[in-house]
């Protein structure tokens, strides 16, 4: 177990060793047990933090806000559109001021080409931990909660086949940060990761190269395919979820924003939906996971997400426990 976390930034799980990620999971599990037993956990008493959001959120905002209150602190929600950021105040000035006012700053900024750079700039100037609540590249809190859920349900993850599968959606252009974080993290636990998507929805080459290097180091594997059936076949875990086409979106408007959500290119991929028939080709105990929000009846049939293989609510609940684990280590550890 590693114990040196205090004051560090939490932007990408790749910045932490596997042993450190294991510690995050152990602390999260301990906090989960205490939550279930009603045992107080006042590890961050009288601390304050700031939660800055450039985009909407249900799980991330509330897991941080409720989680921090349960640790004895107070989290202030900041809508970036009502901050002086809207008048052009820099990441540097914002980070310096807020870090003087409190004990941590957490931020969601998914705009393609901007989000990660903004967080990195804040981390350069903040005297307190910066936590990534999802940027254009990474969603570390989500990937950590996913990993915790898998370990709870399956135990040892070595050689477990997990398929991260692109799915059709019309609700909004979802960032690539969830599949990127998952494809980087899961091979570190020796899993056989299959990444399946139609042509045109590739993840960046450097992500695949890093994921394969992780697999090489930890004894897993990474396979990239445009064959959806191959991804479902015999899978122990499936994660069918939409992500935007960053390759074309990066030329103009943000991947999370203003271009039309549904176009002819997207509509041609409507068959990439998680159905009961596809689930029947997976392992008989297959787990269905989704970070949520799900675009029901586009990404997935109701009978799957509401069915016996789905663990989406346990997965969402673990966002609370992992958020508390990470905040405790970064803000309360030695
Ligand atoms: N999964 C996730 O990050 O959910 P929110 O967008 O609701 O925070």
Automatic annotation (TrEMBL):
It comes from the Bacteria. It comes from Sporomusa silvacetica DSM 10669. Belongs to the aspartate/ornithine carbamoyltransferase superfamily. The gene is argF_2. InterPro entries: Asp/Orn_carbamoyltranf_P-bd, Asp/Orn_carbamoylTrfase, Asp/Orn_carbamoylTrfase_sf, Asp_carbamoyltransf_Asp/Orn-bd, Orn/put_carbamltrans. This is Ornithine carbamoyltransferase. Its EC number is 2.1.3.3. The lineage of its organism: Bacteria, Bacillati, Bacillota, Negativicutes, Selenomonadales. GO terms for molecular function: ornithine carbamoyltransferase activity. PROSITE patterns: CARBAMOYLTRANSFERASE. It is an enzyme of class 2 (transferase). Residues 178-329 form the Aspartate/ornithine carbamoyltransferase Asp/Orn-binding domain. The keyword Transferase applies. Keywords: Transferase. It holds the Pfam family OTCace_N. Residues 8-152 form the Aspartate/ornithine carbamoyltransferase carbamoyl-P binding domain.
């Amino acid at each position: 177990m590693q114990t040196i976390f205090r004051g560090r930034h939490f932007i990408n799980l790749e910045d932490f060793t596997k042993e450190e990620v294991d510690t995050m999971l152990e602390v999260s599990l301990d906090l989960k047990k205490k939550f279930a037993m009603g045992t107080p956990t006042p590890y961050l008493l009288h601390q304050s933090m700031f939660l800055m959001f450039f985009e909407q959120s249900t799980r991330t905002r509330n897991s941080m806000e409720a989680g921090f209150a349960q640790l004895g602190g107070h989290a202030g929600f900041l809508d970036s559109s009502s901050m002086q950021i809207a008048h052009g105040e820099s990441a540097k000035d914002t980070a310096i001021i807020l870090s003087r006012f409190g004990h941590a700053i957490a931020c969601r900024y998914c705009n393609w080409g901007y989000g990660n750079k903004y967080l990195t700039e804040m981390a350069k100037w903040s005297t307190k931990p910066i936590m990534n609540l999802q940027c254009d590249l990474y969603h570390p809190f989500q990937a950590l909660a996913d990993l915790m859920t898998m370990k709870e349900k399956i135990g040892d993850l070595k050689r477990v086949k997990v398929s991260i599968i692109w799915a059709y959606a019309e609700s909004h252009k979802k960032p690539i940060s969830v599949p990127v974080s998952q494809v980087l993290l899961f091979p570190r636990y020796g899993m056989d990761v299959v990444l399946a998507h139609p042509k045109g929805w590739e993840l960046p080459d450097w992500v695949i190269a890093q994921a394969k290097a992780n697999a090489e180091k930890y004894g897993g594997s990474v396979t990239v395919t445009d064959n959806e059936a191959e991804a479902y076949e015999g899978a122990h875990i499936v994660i069918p979820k939409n992500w935007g086409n960053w390759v074309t979106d990066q030329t103009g408007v943000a991947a999370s924003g203003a271009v039309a959500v549904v176009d002819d290119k997207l509509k041609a991929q409507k068959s990439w939906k998680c159905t009961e028939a596809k689930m029947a080709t997976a392992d008989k105990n297959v787990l269905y996971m989704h970070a949520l929000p799900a675009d029901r009846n586009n990404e997935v049939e109701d009978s799957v997400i509401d069915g016996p293989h789905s663990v989406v609510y346990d997965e969402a609940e673990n966002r609370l426990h992992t958020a508390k684990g990470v905040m405790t280590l970064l803000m309360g550890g030695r």
